[in-house]
Amino acid sequence: MEKNELRGASEIKSGLFSHVKTDLPSGLVVFLIALPLCLGISLASGAPLFSGIIAGIVGGIVVGFVSGSKINVSGPAASVALVVLTAIQSLGSFQIVLSATIIAGIFQIILGYMRAGTIAYFFPSSMIKGILASIGLILIINQIPHAFGYRGEGLFGGMEDGFIENVFAVISNIVDYISLGATIITLVSLVIIFAWDQPFLKKYTFFRFVPSALIAVLVSIGINQLYKVYFPELALDAGHLVQLPVADGLAEFFSFFTFPDFSQITNPELYTVALSIAFIASLESLLSTEAGDKLDPYKRKTSTNRELKAQGIGNIVSGFIGGLPVTAVIVRTSANVTSGGRTPLSTITHGTLMLICVMTIPLIINMIPLASLSAVLFVVGYKLTSYALYKRMYKAGKRQFIPFIATILAVMFTDLITGIVIGGAVSAFIILRDNYRTPFFIDKEAHHEGEKVELVLSEEVTFLNKASIMLTLDHVAPNSEVVIDATRSVNIDDDVLEIIEEFRNTAAYKNIRLETIGLEKHLKKASA
């Protein structure tokens, strides 16, 4: 079995078209998932809806060609959308944000050349989960007006200057301006999405490969058409529907692309936004790349430094033609692998289909109610900040839960960057307190193929040691023997245990013999 998989891994590297039979259908599935998400994330960004489509096209075609990953799918992401929402308000226009996106792309390329691809491993998982959970909460809150058909200026603002205070004021306004037609569409869309994703339905091929978001969007179009015929008082007007520009020809289509405004190139705020985009986009891309490599049936390792450069190129291109920032997105990547995607052809196919779609059928896309997209974003936001996540983090203990909650509260009451700084400071304080009496060290020696490598873990092994342990294990030569000695360890961080488990699962591909001493009690404690 192992020999067959290894042979498959070598064959898959032979060319872009080596798995056409599975890559093309997978690209179609990813396209069907990505289209409503690209529109929804544009809506969440406060940017033109066309900008999300552009980002999806660039993420599929441009990043697909230059990325070293075989299975990653890139496009606009919910996490970066909220940075854009705030930036449009602080900088004054979306065109200026486009210039920040280009600068962010340049920062990412520089990070790639600085070999900073392991930067994500230096952030504790509790803080990362706190960032994503806070983004999920803000995403849900920001979509309430669209879900209920409320149209107003400055709905919820961003993540700064009285955000929380504005929430209650706007909710009271929604009660006065609620649209029954939009509310029904939101509720029906939510029911469809949750019902469609139930495990007992996933055993059927149709439910497994046809995305729930697409079905919700199509049903919402049908409901609004029924409104127009039978209940005109409930029908949604153009202000509550997607509004993509419609071209009479190819030349006019390309005129719809927006170009950046560099008039504030000397404004320090522009570079603050660019750093925010670069940080969040890089962090999400690296985390998605790590998760994607675990999903890859051939267990291929993606160069994180090359991935940073590819995402940087994607953001430069997207910024120059009017697109949102792009990142690698784990939802689309996992759908790609599940659907049979094995080479970059699948992600390139999804981007190409998106381009063809907006060029040929924009009138159909413009029939999609914004309420349905809000329902899709509600689900995306809930997955980031679910009740199960809070319960899991609470059970993990104070060392995990306190930084997690501190990061959420800091982001909600200040802004994203300040929240990250505060969350990081809380995490560092807890780690330094725990490490005060028990400093960490790894006993490792230079080794060659066939030799024995011994890693001795100290009393406290924290997320700060995550990168060094991962790099050490990644560079173990084939046909070697590895001994991981945890007999002295009092506490081993969940992030480190996850790395060791991943190494255990993939060691056979290099014919590496692994022996662990005193590690099982820590694994049992983590699983409990």
Automatic annotation (TrEMBL):
Superkingdom to which the source organism belongs: Bacteria
UniProt keyword list: Membrane, Transmembrane, Transmembrane helix
Membrane topology of the entry: Multi-pass membrane protein
Pfam families in the record: Sulfate_transp
Localization annotation: Membrane
InterPro entries for this protein: SLC26A/SulP_dom, SLC26A/SulP_fam
UniProt protein name: SulP family inorganic anion transporter
Species whose genome carries this gene: Pontibacter aydingkolensis
